[in-house]
From TrEMBL:
It comes from the Bacteria. It comes from Duganella zoogloeoides. The lineage of its organism: Bacteria, Pseudomonadati, Pseudomonadota, Betaproteobacteria, Burkholderiales. Coiled coil: none annotated. This is Cupin-like domain-containing protein. Residues 123-280 form the JmjC domain. InterPro entries: Cupin_8, JmjC_dom, RmlC-like_jellyroll. It holds the Pfam family Cupin_8. SUPFAM superfamilies: Clavaminate synthase-like (SSF51197).
Length: 345
């Protein structure tokens, strides 16, 4: 099978840095708080789930079923013609898959039934909280992350292609069954990835419109620049990858049965809202201002947000600084209530 680089006639991609890790050894902060991605070979190779997957997909299936307790999940289903690519329909009025709430064991049944199909339908369960779906699984299959309050999720499916997207939290993704190819881009490649709508997305995050398997460089010429900055790695069961916050990542599941476990956490207080909300509000309130006014607001954001060091409020008596003071959980609740009241006007 030709590589994506061959398919789009682009040069080879730089590999993601790798570390051979002792299975089960704790991860230090210099990895979990890094701003560069890294592959951790063998990090979870001691998991019983991984050992089952290395035996066979049937053994991995049986291991998962051992934790199933009548839970339902949201599953994506696409026709064989989409070739595993989770994406929009032809006119981008919707998507090329349907969402169905089904029993988790029914998903496993469908994966088993189509395991040997040369062109199976696309079956994909994404970002499902493990403790709700498979209670007891994390007691046997977990990663020590220190004091981080991480959300552990499971992803199950057959051969799928998830378009490049970013996530706000830091992400430790552990391959528990099958193989996955990760292609990452630094945040500054945003303009070269041709991102689709912000408010109509296949799975909650805006995605690149470029088909990485057959990139149209006439329609998306700047993608060649993004490709030059890309980093790639193929992971097998037992391997893991740390993806820093805001890095764009395209993920391809390569086998007929794939399981991924990931951990998300933020390096910011829990009371902080997602900046994506601010971006949407900025589109509503600032994008269409006259150029001189946009520049004025750009200066305000530079002063109060992007280059804030506390000096911007030093001339105000401490008790009178209000939202310019350091924000804690109580201050965040008050500010959120103030914003909600303003938006109701």
């Amino acid at each position: 099978m030709p590589s994506h680089a061959d398919a789009v006639m682009l040069p080879a991609v730089q590999p993601i840095a790798e570390i051979a890790w002792t299975a089960g050894a704790p991860l230090p902060d210099e990895i979990l708080a890094a701003t560069e991605p890294v592959v951790l070979r063998g990090l979870v190779s001691h998991w019983p789930m991984v050992r089952a997957a290395k035996t066979s997909s049937q053994a991995a299936d049986a291991y998962l079923r051992g934790f199933y307790r009548d839970a339902t999940v949201m599953a994506m289903h696409g026709a064989p013609e989409i070739d595993g690519r989770i994406f929009y329909n032809d006119d981008m009025s919707g998507f090329n898959f349907s969402m169905q709430q089904v029993r988790f064991d029914a998903v496993l049944d469908a994966l088993r039934a189509h395991q040997d199909d040369p062109r199976p339908p696309t079956l994909y369960v994404g970002s499902t909280t493990i403790d709700a779906c498979l209670p007891g699984f994390t007691a046997e299959n977990d990663v020590r992350l220190g004091t981080r309050d991480a959300l552990a999720s499971i992803w199950v499916g057959n051969r799928t292609r998830i378009p490049a997207h970013y996530d706000l939290p830091d992400n430790l993704a552990c391959v528990a069954a099958g193989r996955r190819r990760f292609m990452l881009f630094p945040p500054d490649q945003l303009a070269n990835l041709y991102i689709g709508p912000l408010d109509l997305t296949p799975a909650g995050q805006a995605v690149s419109l470029v088909d990485f398997a057959a990139a149209d460089l006439v329609r998306y010429p700047r993608f060649a620049t993004a490709w030059a900055h890309a980093r790639q790695a193929e992971l097998a069961a037992g391997d893991a990858i740390f993806i820093p916050s805001m890095w764009w990542h395209h993920i391809e599941a390569l086998d007929s049965f794939n399981v991924l476990v990931n951990y998300w956490w933020r390096q910011s207080p829990a009371y902080m809202d997602t900046p994506a909300t601010t971006l949407l509000h900025a589109l509503l309130t600032m994008r269409d201002l006259p150029p001189a006014q946009r520049l004025a607001w750009q200066e305000l954001f530079r002063h109060y947000v992007f280059e804030s060091d506390g000096s911007e409020a030093a001339h105000i008596p401490e008790a009178a600084r209000h939202v310019l003071a350091p924000i804690d959980a109580m201050g965040a609740r008050m500010l959120r209530a103030h914003l909600l009241n303003r938006m109701k006007r």
